Amino acid sequence: xxxxxxxxxxxxxxxxxxxxxxxxxxxxxxxxxxxxxxxxxxxxxxxxxxxxxxxxxxxxxxxxxxxxxxxxxxxxxxxxxxxxxxxxxxxxxxxxxxxxxxxxxxxxxxxxxxxxxxxxxxxxxxxxxxxxxxxxxxxxxxxxxxxxxxxxxxxxxxxxxxxxxxxxxxxxxxxxxxxxxxxxxxxxxxxxxxxxxxxxxxxxxxxxxxxxxxxxxxxxxxxxxxxxxxxxxxxxxxxxxxxxxxxxxxxxxxxxxxxxxxxxxxxxxxxxxxxxxxxxxxxxxxxxxxxxxxxxxxxxxxxxxxxxxxxxxxxxxxxxxxxx
Amino acid sequence: xxxxxxxxxxxxxxxxxxxxxxxxxxxxxxxxxxxxxxxxxxxxxxxxxxxxxxxxxxxxxxxxxxxxxxxxxxxxxxxxxxxxxxxxxxxxxxxxxxxxxxxxxxxxxxxxxxxxxxxxxxxxxxxxxxxxxxxxxxxxxxxxxxxxxxxxxxxxxxxxxxxxxxxxxxxxxxxxxxxxxxxxxxxxxxxxxxxxxxxxxxxxxxxxxxxxxxxxxxxxxxxxxxxxxxxxxxxxxxxxxxxxxxxxxxxxxxxxxxxxxxxxxxxxxxxxxxxxxxxxxxxxxxxxxxxxxxxxxxxxxxxxxxxxxxxxxxxxxxxxxxxx
Lengths: 324, 324
Known about the structure:
The structure is a homodimer. Chain A is mainly α. Helix content of chain A is about 75%, strand content about 0%. The first copy, chain A, has a two-stranded antiparallel sheet with strand order 1-2. The interface between A and B is large, with 36 and 36 residues.
């Protein structure tokens, strides 16, 4: 069994080895650009860790891991167009650096590249791998659609929000783990358990993100604390606050989310104060813990030794503990 | 062996049977809309005809045919955004009817749907089918990129143009036929021959389109004759005319393609006159015939009876003879 560091080295090497044609230049340069912007490579790492969990050499799963990473980057390129985002990992997004048309088409060809990597998987697993990948990809698209629709709605429930983040974020973690499990020759039951583990842990990660965006230590947080509040982003915290707030708290929320012009610091403090009065941070933490505990209970049921589970559990802990 | 009409009925039924989730509504409604706009379903029909050509029941290839049709419709949705096209088959394009974001994301999920259909192919052929499909899809994206780049360039050669239409239009015909051949258990040699046949016939079709756009009978042509001239579209005819023109003919082309304001009829007549002086129609026809003859010579080499080849040859003839 290889260490997580060894697997990360295998991944880095495989990403270096991804080659794309030189021409047409404007089709393939954006792909190299976005893939080399970096990132933590969590998703492909999950594929490899899952394969090793079931006692199979991670190298067997390297093409599936690349498929997941290229697909993930494809979603970033297209989501950034739709979200009108100027920056990604501190650099210009593809549609900003080139053009929207280039970002659409380079994204499309990345989806094809993801599928090309997938087709290199051992043919014994191919059908299962494709079905899992396609279901995952479809879920991610549905999640993005719901996320965009929620921006236009003011009646989004917590249940709907959880379903949206499940689709937009969590199914890809579940899908990555399940691909690794299939290639690792896991039983159907174990493959399903690790998928469910991934989905629940993914929801917990997103809730953690929602909390950090408001309550992170500004010195450790990589971006502006309160960014979600400033943008009226319908996070778990804002939705829960609207659900719980009455009288002056409700009025404060309604006012601050309706102002077109405002002092940024003043808005963040005012909304945060409503959150504090309503104990929103703890409610969010309780919900996060619920998904985390559900994930861990599912993980426990997987029929391999605790020793084999150590690396994946360590990574999960590290990801949950991040404060930046 | 089934008649082309019977195969068309199978196709219509299969398209009716394509089902998509109800929610999120704005993700899936555009897919139903674009697929039900109609069209001649030539590409999926080529899949089925090719399977039957090699003595296998077309029903074996129905999922591959659906994958090709859904993929083709995906390219229409994204190309229409990039080309800023308001109409498709006389109806509003997806980005006009909904929004650009909806068109991007519905297109993305159509690509996934195409892959889902592909994954239903008999696993014996799956690896080959995926490789052919992915190579084809990548080529189509490269063709669209080149087409967009050519709009910004004034030094496009005939050779580059032929390569662009090969990628944008012809590889999908070749790919459709090859998919049918793989599922029809054709030899590798025959699968390659029918692919090459498709590519060459595709180039001939596009050259035919270029000619018709200028020289079609206005009463039979479905759109405005001269549309390519009005839009300065770099077709085979315009590129060849620029290549051949000297003195006053060159001057006329340069002037008419540079005017921002002009009388439409006057421009069409003036450019057409240059074409006529330079015998461009016949040069284009000669080039078209070259690709057509190359296609037919390749088709002849395929190792099945002339009787089995009859339906595919008839369809090819009908498509080459269209004047609308």
